[in-house]
Design a protein that fits this description.
About 15% of the residues lie in helices and about 40% in strands. With about 350 residues, the chain is mainly beta.
C-alpha cells in the first residue's frame, strides 16, 4: 500500500468522557446537585422576600418579632397577643405588614372624667388626655384648664378634670359725697340755716374683671374707673345773729327760739340712762345740737325750768331741743311745742 502524505492522513475520531448522549452515575449526581443549589437559591430569595422584622408594642412595652404574616391580625395571632373589645390596634388589624413595621396595641383602662360638675367612669384606650376629651366631645374653651395636662398619657384609674374658666367685666357704681360749704349770716338769728344750693352726690363707675373657676369667683381685678357724674357742693349760710334779752329776769342773756320734744330713760330703743356728756339722764338734762348750744351750757327753758345741755341725738339738729323727764308718761304728756330758751351760761368749746 503506498504511503499517504501526512496532510491526507485521517484524524482519529474525537471522544468525550463520559459520553454526552449516555447517562452515567456521575452526570446524574451533578445534575441533582445543580438542581438542589438552584432550589436553595430560589428558596433563599423567597425567604428573604417573605421574612419581616417588626416591632410589637403592647401597653407601652416594645418587643422584636420575626414574621411571615401578611396582615396585622395574622402577626398578633402568631405572636399570641390577645386584643380585647375596647383595646385599640394601630395600624388597623386588616392592614398589610411590611418589613420594619411597628404595631401598637393600646390596652383600654378604667378612668374617671369630671366636666361641668359631673363625673363619669368610663373605659378607654385613648393615648392622651387630649384625645380622650376629643372622643368624649368635650370642647375646651380658650381659658379652660385640664388636669393632668392635655398632652399627658392615660393610665389606669386616672382622674381627669376639666375646670371651666370664665371672665367677665362688671360695672359697679359708688356715690361720691358732696362737700358742704358754709358761711355765716349776721342778719339771720343763730341756729337758722339757709340752703343756697342743695348738694348733689356724684357717681363713680368702676370696672372689675371677674374670673370664675367652675362658677366660683377666684379673682376680682380693677381694670378701669371713671366719674359718671361730678358732685355738686351744698352751699348753706348759718345765722349768727344773737338775740339778747333787754329786760326782765334774764336781761343780758341770749334768747333762742326752739322747738322742744321730750324723752325719758329707757323710753325707746337706743335710749338708756346715760348721756353723751356722761350725766345721768332725767329731768334737768336736755339734748341739743352742739353747733347751736355747746354741751355743758346752763339753760333755762320756758315751761320746763333750768337745765344742763348734757346730751345729743340723731334727730336733734339746728333749733331743736329734747327735754329730759324722769318717766315716760311725763315725756308723752309734754309732747312737742315751741319754747323760748335762755342761755344762762354758754360753755366755751375747746
Amino acid at each position: 500500500m503506498p504511503e499517504m502524505p501526512p496532510s491526507l492522513v485521517p484524524a482519529p475520531p474525537v471522544r468525550f468522557f463520559p459520553a454526552m448522549n449516555k447517562k452515567s452515575p456521575i452526570s446524574l449526581s451533578a445534575a441533582i446537585l445543580v438542581a438542589g443549589l438552584a432550589a436553595l437559591l430560589i428558596a433563599s430569595g423567597i425567604y428573604a422576600v417573605l421574612r419581616k422584622d417588626i416591632t410589637i408594642v403592647v401597653a407601652g412595652r416594645p418587643r422584636a418579632h420575626v414574621t411571615f404574616g401578611r396582615t396585622v391580625a395574622n402577626v398578633l395571632a402568631e405572636a399570641s397577643v390577645r386584643v380585647g373589645g375596647d383595646d385599640e390596634v394601630s395600624p388597623h388589624p386588616t392592614a398589610p405588614v411590611s418589613d420594619g413595621a411597628r404595631i401598637i396595641v393600646r390596652r383600654a383602662v378604667l378612668i374617671s372624667v369630671t366636666v361641668d360638675g359631673r363625673t363619669v367612669r368610663l373605659t378607654s384606650a385613648a393615648p392622651t388626655v387630649r384625645e380622650l376629651l376629643r372622643r368624649q366631645k368635650v370642647i375646651l374653651g380658650e381659658s379652660d384648664k385640664v388636669f393632668p395636662a392635655a398632652g399627658s398619657p392615660i393610665w389606669t384609674d386616672a382622674r381627669i378634670r376639666v375646670v371651666r374658666i370664665t371672665h367677665r367685666v362688671v360695672a359697679e357704681r359708688t356715690e361720691i359725697p358732696f362737700h358742704v360749704v358754709s358761711s355765716t349770716d349776721p342778719a339771720t338769728p343763730r341756729g337758722i340755716v339757709r340752703v343756697k344750693q342743695p348738694g348733689r352726690a356724684g357717681v363713680r363707675e368702676r370696672l372689675f374683671r371677674l374670673t370664675h373657676a367652675d362658677g366660683v369667683l377666684i379673682s376680682r381685678v380693677l381694670v378701669g374707673s371713671r366719674v359718671v357724674r361730678t358732685p355738686l357742693d351744698r352751699i348753706i349760710s348759718l345765722g349768727s345773729q344773737v338775740s339778747i334779752v333787754s329786760r326782765g329776769q334774764f336781761a343780758g342773756k341770749e334768747l333762742i327760739l326752739m322747738v322742744a320734744t321730750a324723752y325719758s330713760p329707757w323710753c325707746c330703743p337706743g335710749v338708756d340712762n346715760a348721756t353723751a356728756f356722761g350725766m345721768r339722764a332725767g329731768y334737768g338734762v336736755v339734748a341739743v345740737d352742739p353747733a347751736i348750744i355747746p354741751l355743758g351750757s346752763r339753760l333755762y327753758v320756758e315751761g320746763y325750768g333750768y337745765a344742763i345741755a348734757g346730751d345729743t341725738g340723731g334727730s336733734i339738729r339746728g333749733l331743736r331741743i329734747d327735754l329730759g323727764f324722769d318717766t315716760r308718761r311725763e315725756a308723752i304728756r309734754f309732747g312737742r311745742r315751741p319754747v323760748r330758751v335762755y342761755v344762762i351760761e354758754r360753755r366755751v368749746r375747746r
